[in-house]
Amino acid sequence: MSINYNDTKLAGVHARSLSDKEGFWGEQAQHIDWFEQPKQVLDFSNPPFARWYVGGSTNLCHNAVDRHLKDRANQKALVYISTETNEEKVYSYAELHQEVQRMAAIMQSLGVKRGDRVLVYMPMIAEAIFAILACARIGAIHSVVFGGFAAPSLAARIDDATPVLMISSDAGMRNGKEVPYKHLVDEACSLAAKPPKHVLLVNRGLAKMDLVAGRDVDYAQARAQNMNAQVPCEKMQATDPSYILYTSGTTGKPKGVQRDTGGYAVALAASMKHIYDCKPGEVFFCTSDIGWVVGHSYIIYGPLINGSTTIVYEGLPLRPDPAIWWSIVERYQVSTMFSSPTAARVLKKQDPAYMTQHNTKCLRRLFLAGEPLDEPTAKWISEALGGARIIDNYWQTETGWPILSAQHGLEVTETKFGSPSFPVYGYDIRLVHESTFEEVGANEKGMLCAMPPLPPGCLQTVWGDDERFVKTYFSAVPGQHLYSTFDYATRDDDGYYFILGRTDDVINVAGHRLGTREIEEAIQAHKNVAEVAVVGVADTLKGQMPMAFAVLKDASVAATPEGAKAEEKAIMATVDHEIGAIARPSRVHFVTLLPKTRSGKLLRRAMQALAEGRDPGDMTTLEDPSALEQIKKALGA
Ligand code: AMP
């Protein structure tokens, strides 16, 4: 049965959220606790900068932990499960409160003050969540760096955020193997121009860890001295920054997305009700990592602000066997799950019997986000789970919560496979033609944009660079302050949206966002590389994989097949060292010339088309046709 968006209740809620912003967001603000009520819902006197809940004071940690002590002190707040170390530990809200206060006291003893930055570079362990909540508690701004990033990437983020403290660990675990962190911490501190004064280390007993005297502090020892710590929540202004999270764009240097405090708390509280439809006391299981925005919003803050139980999972979906997630769902009676299309595709390759080994009746909905959800995968997992609803969510690090989604807490609407459904309340979505800048009609491709003010919870600015914020996000349409998502999309006759891919040089590998320029810069750190182009190539499992075409300074080293293999391996190792294995190209092809326009622009789209077996399109601007022939030859086409 097909429905038309215009006939839904959602359309009415959405229209009101835009026509009566103050009224709508004023009501949503009542889902959280305030120390002082806001004096003004929205200040948009300096567009495109939006200031939400001006004059209000609150605290994210208070909303995520303390306010539940009255009714939920003994309820499970956090369930930590590691199938890597075979640990399982449950923290009630009262216990979480205590652990967060201990962590907060340690931070204070190391000199961390309100407004200071604290960098969190940690595996998926409960202490990482204590650290993040403790930052919020004392008003420090956390900057979480994904544990898979290598030392130079970590150092670049240290230099941008200038943290006074870094919190890390001896090692993470992946697929049964230790992934040591400490040597990367040491290397990053020596690479950084302004390394943090202290490093607090959680020793899991997995890898050797020498402490640097005067700088490094052992967490277990510090915790033992703070067992009865009582640290009150700082009264933060709603507009005070709560965190920085780096993300990739077209230019080489990652941007620090800066989030506020009050708007974020309200946006997440509202989303748990209206979008995720997860009740307080129910169990929410998000399989992402705390290093990504999904982890920030829906492993930590969203479920806890909502008074739900959050599951923090360290491990793969396949260990000890491919039924592990469903066994967790059954054991903890998970009602709402959040994962990625790549994870669903990984499970699809396994024996289907694993999908039905456990009773997953409790699972009402499975949300999938971060990358396109292909129709066969969506259909397969929906059937394999015997009717759990699969909901495609579209959003970005910048927004912090969904832009496009079904909103079953408001109204249950039919979903269409391949579509993240409809605009979420608060987002004034415009689909704009890329050259005429006119709004496009049904079934026409446009750039997905939003008219500011962006709703609460979205990025306030780029950390330390207001100009970059305006230039990057609000200049796609000349003469208008329109926010660009950098994605193409269409809307069908029924009002359902479909995402078509990025408009910029960003690629999406298993839901991880990477800039092709960033990978090119990393490859250039290899001394024999003269020039390189990286493109994203369609991959049946991970959505996309980076592929590199490199021109060598000394091509003779790659003259033989063995030589070429060795050079390719060395270049891949360079990427591992500079960014981390998540950015490693699937292949590095060697050519003596890259296809460029006469004005010297790399023709990445043409290379990508050839690598995907498609026609490269109009090549009249190509400077030297032999460059394209070389690419074809390298690809074996
Ligand atoms: P990130 O900031 O890492 O979350 O990446 C955001 C980007 O991932 C978006 O701009 C899209 O290109 C892509 N993305 C996220 N969710 C979806 C989705 N549901 N469908 C298609 N693409 C998505």
What does this protein structure show overall?
By secondary structure, the protein is of the alpha/beta class. Helices cover 30% and strands 25% of the residues. It has 19 helices and 32 strands. The chain has an eight-stranded mixed β-sheet with strand order 12-11-8-6-7-14-15-25, with helices on both faces. Strands 5-4-17-16-18-19-20 form a seven-stranded mixed β-sheet, sandwiched between helices. A four-stranded antiparallel β-sheet has the order 23-24-26-27, with no helix packed on it. Strand 18 (334-339), helix 13 (341-348) and strand 19 form a beta-alpha-beta unit. The radius of gyration is 24 Å and the shape is globular. The two termini are 44 Å apart. The structure holds adenosine monophosphate.
Question: Strands, helices and their partners?
Answer:
Elements: H1 9-19, H2 21-28, E1 40-46, E2 49-54, E3 57-58, H3 60-64, H4 69-72, E4 76-82, E5 87-92, H5 93-109, E6 117-120, H6 126-138, E7 141-144, H7 151-161, E8 165-169, E9 171-174, E10 177-180, H8 182-191, E11 198-202, E12 216-218, H9 219-224, E13 236-237, E14 243-247, E15 255-259, H10 262-274, E16 283-286, H11 293-305, E17 309-314, H12 324-332, E18 334-339, H13 341-348, E19 365-369, H14 375-384, E20 389-393, E21 404-405, E22 422-423, E23 429-432, E24 446-450, E25 461-462, H15 466-473, E26 483-491, E27 497-502, E28 506-509, E29 512-515, H16 516-524, E30 529-539, E31 543-552, H17 561-578, E32 587-591, H18 604-611, H19 625-634
Parallel strand pairs: 4-17, 6-7, 6-8, 7-14, 8-11, 11-12, 16-17, 16-18, 18-19, 19-20, 31-32
Antiparallel strand pairs: 1-2, 3-13, 4-5, 9-10, 14-15, 15-25, 21-22, 23-24, 24-26, 26-27, 28-29, 30-31
The structure holds adenosine monophosphate.
